[in-house]
């Protein structure tokens, strides 16, 4: 049976998948003829840029393409014949081609694989110029190569109006989808597919906001930020006016996105129906989705408690705690660090004497229901499965991400100027969640990427003489509280008073559409909120009935970060690394921020890190009592004392920085598990450290380091040689195992890459070795650890940290065809355990030796046995196929898919473990 592709988070969004089945070529042609209308294009004019200090050495890329809107006619043509709207995928090919082209890269060839990110558009490259809504204070110039909007305004209002208009031109449908996701209303808007149900449930569970809540966040952000707050409000209103002007123009001109017809919101013949205008609370709804996806570290305390209890049950309290801590790796001495100069930034460390812990009684934990009164397809088996997946994802501490950064000080470059190759991973979607733009106006001068619908400022990109980027950091800003119940299941003790929980509901219903034929259904999502946040679990603690709630420091503060982004776009504010760090301090999402100009590099870890009460262990639930609350916490505003900027990992002009969602600094604990001796950050660390040691780093060399790491199999590069060392500790006599060892060793010697034999071959070099390791890894991990840990503890720890995340592994947190790989897995555990069995030095060892009970010969027997099984496992079993790939197609199983969020589809590309939006920068001068 073909494998069903696992979809998580955004991957689960339903799109017009029925189009191919019901449309016929003849009817398409007739319909298209009636829908096509001539589009006028203004005369090309030149754009100039006298404020650009990059000297032509700034580049960027964002697949698949800038144009994320398509009319109904364009969608029908794409579905029937595969034709692409202009600029819908012209960045996909260059992005994909780097995987086989990086070895021959030179500085002169960089823009073969990237866009020229210089300010302005050369006169011979101007494709169009428009004055949106006839305004005289703003123009939007689009370039011929990529169609990126270059917005230039003479007034602040006009500039932001243009930004909103351009955003709607490029991403209106996507923006509409995500304002509904943020409100928990996706099914009502886009259809009742199980994937849509799961997506809206995931976000509504974490951010169950009413309209009043959304407005209050805007009011508070404005009130608390003085003149900048007022400016942000004015910018947002101008931006919204631009969006709505485009909605009106496209509606009357009948060139709005065709998805509105396919989902029943507009009629293609009469033009009946409406596209609702955007309002300011929509921006907060959009922001809540982005913040929850990429910038909300923490949670998972209940799962941590369950695995701790399992460890204590297996080994006793003292030994079980020791074993649990060794797997948790809070502060592993072998972990790769972003700030690697030895400076310590203690946060969320293990207290000497934990206070207020509220661990559940064994077996008492149940997840709080979210869905009630389900009817029709809202109560189907697929809906139930989607809801379960959504709940697991929402309550996990593991946030997806593939963002990385490589930044080298000018002291070690050939030019003497810093070089950076960095970017965020936001998944692969069509259209992409991010959009490119350049904005030039009073108080704004930037080019780069912004999330669709939030692009009043560039969020990741470049200014006049500096660039910045981010990776997800994951430090813990979410805590779990146990509130003791009183009276009934919906009242709890708050400071000694029996207090009613607040019930928040969202009732959704849907019916079939052309895009989504899911039969009619409905349900109500219901969240019970306390002063300590929404209820997530129920349990007993010492026999007392409790509700476990989750409190996030950015909860009710989704709009606050707008001030930091405003500062980053302001050339009068950011003039050097300290100004950059100051701006990043105004961003309450949990990110690692990186900076480069012509002379300096810098780093800052952002987020509102709450100051916890003395003795509170952030790893576990604590009692919802005054003694264990965040210091000076005000439940009315969800504000508290936060750690000062100096306590966040930060640095200026370190020799180099690398980040791939790894540990930030000594003693700084991240919420997700897996910051141990082997992390994908090591793939960058090893390469960049070698470059810096040699000196003379160039843009080419740094891009090559990134691209080389992007094709590496972390298990093969950093763990497999040690496994083979055990296997080869005695002569291998079994012919099947010997053949497998030979193939694996040859792969390691060739560089342990998952790469095509040649560009476009769709066949891997060392394909059989890759198949063997993909089959072997889960077998060897289970055989190595389950006997010693026991089934209960092994299962509990795999809930904290998945065993594997190979590119084709659909059981990892990112699902399959998602690009991001090797973020979460047991590579560090295997590495430490095998080294211990070999008698090698291990800093921060596991609590015990597990492979073969610590016996080298017994460990070897286990590895040999599982390797033989893996070698005999067919490719069709390892890669069982799905809706895209036939069984046994290894390259396809790994390949990246631009998951459709609208009506336009794209082909899959060869796997790379790489950011979605990426910059390559080297500034030549400074203001």
What fraction strand? Answer: 15-25%
Structural category is alpha+beta
Helical fraction: 25-40%
Oligomer: single chain
What is the average per-residue confidence, as pLDDT, rounded to a whole number?
Answer: 92
* Approximate shape: globular
Low-pLDDT stretches? 1-48
Largest sheet: 10 strands, mixed
The first-to-last residue Cα distance is 62 Å
Number of helices: 28
Give the strand order of the largest sheet, numbering strands 1, 2, ... along the chain: 3-4-5-12-13-14-15-23-24-26
Can you count the beta strands?
30
Tell me the Rg in angstroms. Answer: 27 Å
What do you see in this structure?
- By secondary structure, the chain is an alpha+beta fold.
- It has 28 helices and 30 strands.
- Helix 23 (767-789) crosses helix 24 (791-800) and helix 23 (767-789) packs across helix 26.
Annotation keywords:
ten-stranded mixed sheet; 927 residues; alpha+beta; single chain; 17% strand
């Amino acid at each position: 049976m073909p494998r069903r592709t696992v979809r998580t988070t955004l991957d689960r969004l339903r799109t017009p998948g029925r189009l191919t089945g019901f449309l016929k070529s003849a009817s398409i042609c007739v319909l298209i003829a009636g829908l096509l209308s001539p589009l006028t294009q203004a005369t090309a004019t030149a754009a100039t840029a006298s404020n650009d200090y990059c000297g032509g050495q700034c580049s960027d890329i964002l697949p698949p393409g800038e144009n994320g809107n398509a009319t109904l006619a364009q969608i029908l043509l794409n579905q029937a014949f595969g034709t692409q709207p202009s600029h819908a995928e012209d960045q996909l090919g260059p992005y994909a081609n780097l995987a086989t082209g990086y070895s021959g890269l030179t500085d002169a060839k960089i823009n073969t694989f990237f866009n020229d990110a210089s300010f302005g558009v050369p006169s011979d490259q101007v494709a169009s110029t428009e004055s949106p809504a006839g305004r005289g204070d703003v123009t939007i110039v689009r370039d011929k190569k990529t169609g990126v909007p270059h917005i230039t305004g003479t007034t602040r209002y006009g500039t932001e109006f243009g930004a909103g208009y351009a955003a709607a031109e490029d991403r209106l449908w996507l923006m509409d989808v995500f304002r509904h996701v943020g409100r928990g209303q996706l099914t009502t808007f886009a259809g009742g597919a199980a994937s849509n149900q799961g997506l809206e449930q995931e976000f509504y569970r974490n951010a169950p906001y009413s309209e009043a809540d959304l407005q209050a966040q805007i009011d508070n952000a404005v009130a608390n930020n003085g003149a900048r707050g007022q400016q942000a409000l004015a910018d947002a209103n101008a931006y919204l006016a631009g969006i709505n002007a485009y909605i009106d123009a496209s509606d009357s001109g009948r060139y709005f996105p065709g998805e509105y017809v396919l989902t029943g919101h507009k009629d293609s013949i009469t033009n009946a129906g409406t596209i609702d205008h955007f309002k300011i609370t929509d921006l907060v709804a959009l922001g809540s989705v982005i913040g929850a996806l990429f910038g909300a570290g923490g949670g998972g305390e209940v799962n941590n408690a369950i695995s701790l209890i399992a460890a204590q049950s297996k080994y006793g309290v003292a030994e079980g705690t020791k074993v649990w801590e060794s797997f948790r790796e809070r502060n592993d001495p072998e972990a790769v660090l972003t700030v690697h100069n030895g400076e310590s930034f203690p946060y969320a460390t293990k207290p000497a004497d934990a206070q207020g812990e509220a661990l559940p009684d064994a077996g008492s934990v149940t997840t709080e229901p979210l869905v009630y009164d389900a009817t029709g397809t809202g109560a189907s088996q697929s809906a139930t499965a989607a809801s379960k997946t959504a709940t697991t994802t929402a309550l996990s501490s593991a946030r997806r991400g593939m963002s990385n950064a490589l930044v080298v000080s000018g002291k070690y470059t050939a030019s003497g100027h810093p070089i950076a190759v960095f970017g965020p991973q936001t998944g692969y979607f069509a259209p992409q969640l991010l959009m490119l733009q350049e904005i030039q106006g009073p108080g704004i001068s930037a080019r780069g990427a912004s999330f669709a619908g939030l692009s009043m400022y560039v969020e990741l990109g470049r200014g006049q003489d500096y660039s910045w980027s981010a990776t997800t950091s994951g430090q813990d800003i979410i805590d779990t509280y146990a509130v003791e119940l009183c009276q009934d299941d919906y009242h709890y003790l708050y400071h000694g008073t029996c207090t009613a929980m607040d019930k928040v509901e969202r009732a959704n219903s849907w019916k079939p559409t052309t895009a989504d034929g899911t039969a009619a259904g409905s349900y109500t999502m219901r969240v019970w909120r306390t002063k300590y946040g929404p209820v997530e679990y129920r349990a007993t603690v010492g026999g007392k009935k409790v509700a476990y709630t989750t409190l996030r420091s950015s909860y009710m503060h989704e709009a606050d970060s707008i001030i930091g982004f405003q500062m980053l776009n302001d050339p009068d504010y950011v003039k050097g690394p300290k100004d950059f760090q100051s701006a990043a301090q105004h961003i309450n999402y949990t990110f690692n921020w990186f900076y480069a100009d012509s002379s300096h590099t810098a780093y800052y870890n952002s987020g509102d890190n709450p100051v916890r009460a003395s003795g509170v262990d952030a790893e576990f639930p604590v009692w919802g009592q005054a003694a264990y609350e965040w210091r000076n916490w005000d439940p009315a505003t969800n504000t508290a004392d936060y750690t000062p900027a100096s306590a966040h990992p930060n640095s200026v002009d370190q020799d180099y920085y690398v980040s791939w969602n790894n540990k930030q600094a000594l003693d700084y604990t991240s919420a997700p598990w897996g910051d141990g001796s082997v992390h994908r950050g090591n793939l960058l660390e090893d390469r960049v450290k070698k470059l810096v040691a040699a000196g003379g780093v160039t843009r080419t060399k740094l891009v090559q380091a990134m691209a080389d790491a992007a094709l590496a199999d972390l298990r093969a590069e950093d763990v497999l040689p040690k496994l083979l060392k055990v296997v080869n500790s005695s002569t291998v006599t079994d012919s099947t195992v010997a053949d497998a060892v030979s193939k694996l060793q040859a792969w390691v010697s060739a560089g342990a890459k998952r790469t095509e034999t040649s560009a476009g071959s769709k066949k891997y070099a060392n394909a059989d070795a890759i198949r063997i390791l993909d089959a072997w890894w889960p077998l060897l991990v289970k055989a190595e650890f389950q006997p010693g840990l026991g089934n209960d503890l092994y299962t509990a720890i795999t809930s904290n940290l998945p065993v594997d995340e190979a590119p084709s592994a659909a059981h990892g947190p990112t699902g399959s065809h998602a690009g991001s790989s090797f973020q979460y897995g047991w590579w560090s555990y295997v590495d430490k355990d095998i080294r211990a069995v070999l008698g090698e030095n291990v800093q921060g060892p596991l609590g015990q030796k597990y492979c073969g009970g610590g016996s080298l010969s017994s460990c070897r027997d286990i590895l040999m046995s599982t390797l033989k099984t893996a070698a005999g496992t067919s490719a069709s079993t390892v890669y069982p196929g799905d809706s895209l790939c036939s069984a046994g197609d290894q390259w396809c199983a790994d390949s990246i898919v631009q998951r459709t969020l609208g009506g336009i589809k794209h082909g899959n590309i060869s796997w790379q473990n790489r950011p979605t939006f990426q910059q390559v920068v080297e500034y030549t001068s400074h203001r």
